[in-house]
Amino acid sequence: MNDPNGMVFFDGEYHLFYQHNPDDTVHGPMYWGHAVSRDLMHWQHLPVALAPDEHGTIFSGSAVVDWKDTTGFFQGRPGLVAIFTHHRSHPDTKQIEQRQSLAYSADSGRTWTKYAGNPVLTCADEPDFRDPKVFWHHGSGRWIMVLAVRNKVSLYGSDNLKDWSFLSHFSAGSREGVWECPDLFPVRIEGTDEYKWVLEVDINPGAVAGGSGGQYFIGAFDGTEFTAENLEDAPLWLDYGKDHYAGVSWSDVPPEDGRRLWIAWMSNWQYANHTPTHGWRNAMTIPRELTLRPVGDGNYRLVQWPVREVEKIRGAAQTAARKTVTKDTPLQLPGVGQCLDIELQLEWKHVQEVGVRVCKSDAEETLVGYDSDKQELYVDRTHSGLTNFHPQFSGRRSAPLALPKKELSLRILVDHCSVEVFAEDGRLSMTELIFPEEDSGDFEVFVKNGRAQVRNLALHRLQP
């Protein structure tokens, strides 16, 4: 599996479609796999939703609830519509064609019918023309499509999801690689009832940690154009780890919930076809809530935080408070396992590095640490387990994080083959795959040169 697709909430269910090759553990002819959940934690696999046809394989896209039956597919009732990219080589010219198509479901996504008029949007001159994210824009009273076109995004408008008119282009930030999987949505500013628009787009290659990753822009959308603010700060990176790509938000989350929820694919195209698993390959991040946080001078940053539903699958916590840690006296919790939700607050006066070791044994460890001299948060998976399957996998990745008060707050989710790090209440995130032995289950708070205090630690085992 790779990109999440068609994220939509309908009739009490969160739908997660995804890029899927049902016949192999490497990328191949793409289908849409399908799973549903009522709590974002427990997922039920459903049959493949969309399969290749005469128009090509099924690349990424989105899904919406057509509440007003603007398509005419549902006899006046609401239903689900998927908008996706058909990908093929032209049967005569052999040139790559990427065209946008529709499918619809009147039974809550259990069965799907492809629209007889497919494709609904084409561009013969552009081979990179894909990954439509569609939403209803109340201000202009129409559907908006955000589409990745080489190293820019194009916006289109429609009254019925079938007939599309070009609106505008946007291009800024990092353009080193091909742009993919865009999303455009309003996000609440923390502590207020105000919103700004966020345009997210992924690039491959050229991301901050190497290979594939995502960037975002903050600004305004008037129904036709997206206007970014503070472009002098671009690119702003969604995640500083290696393994966070193709993030996409859920459509139609009820207003009474009020959250902007999203999820991303947890891998990197540098080695996604080579990770050392058998019978399956690749997974998604934990679902996250998005908000915007003011950072001074009228600027904002996107904040990611694990959804509150994670707390419902926590077991009893192991806790510690006001513990002093030095190089010779680390705080150790042996045998805690590899499925953890860790909350940690640290403070210090003089240290070179401070952090934690997870999935630790005599031979293996994954480090999540802070380098006080460089003012960087880092994840080091050099000795995390299996690393030699690809030259771009091993190593240490860092992210800038100034901490003038010499205090650090961490939330770390560990799930056997992954570490998701959230620093300073989601101000910065790092997502990394790891492949440790099953018995590498110790935990440790460490210090390099100096002393720190564990102000508070709560380590929760997560239930299957």
List the helices and strands and how they pair.
Blueprint: E1 4-10, E2 13-20, E3 31-37, E4 44-50, E5 57-65, E6 80-89, E7 96-105, E8 113-114, E9 129-137, E10 142-149, E11 152-158, E12 165-170, E13 178-188, E14 195-204, E15 213-221, E16 226-228, E17 236-237, E18 245-249, E19 260-265, E20 288-296, E21 299-306, E22 314-320, E23 323-326, E24 331-333, E25 339-360, E26 366-371, E27 376-380, E28 396-400, E29 407-415, E30 418-423, E31 428-433, E32 442-462
Antiparallel strand pairs: 1-2, 2-3, 3-4, 5-6, 6-7, 7-8, 9-10, 10-11, 11-12, 13-14, 14-15, 15-16, 15-17, 18-19, 19-20, 20-21, 22-32, 23-32, 24-32, 25-26, 25-29, 25-32, 26-27, 27-28, 29-30, 30-31
Description:
The chain has 2 domains: 4-306, Glycosyl hydrolase domain, family 43 (Tachylectin-2, Chain A), CATH 2.115.10.20; 315-462, Exo-inulinase, domain 1 (Jelly Rolls), CATH 2.60.120.560. Helix content is 0%, strand content 53%. It has strands spanning 4-10, 13-20, 31-37, 44-50, 57-65, 80-89, 96-105, 113-114, 129-137, 142-149, 152-158, 165-170, 178-188, 195-204, 213-221, 226-228, 236-237, 245-249, 260-265, 288-296, 299-306, 314-320, 323-326, 331-333, 339-360, 366-371, 376-380, 396-400, 407-415, 418-423, 428-433, 442-462. The model has no long low-confidence stretch (mean pLDDT 97). The protein has 464 residues and is mainly β. It has no helices and 32 strands. Strands 22, 23, 24, 25, 26, 27, 28, 29, 30, 31 and 32 form an 11-stranded antiparallel β-sheet that branches. Strands 13, 14, 15, 16 and 17 form a 5-stranded antiparallel β-sheet that branches. Strands 1-2-3-4 form a 4-stranded antiparallel β-sheet, with no helix packed on it.
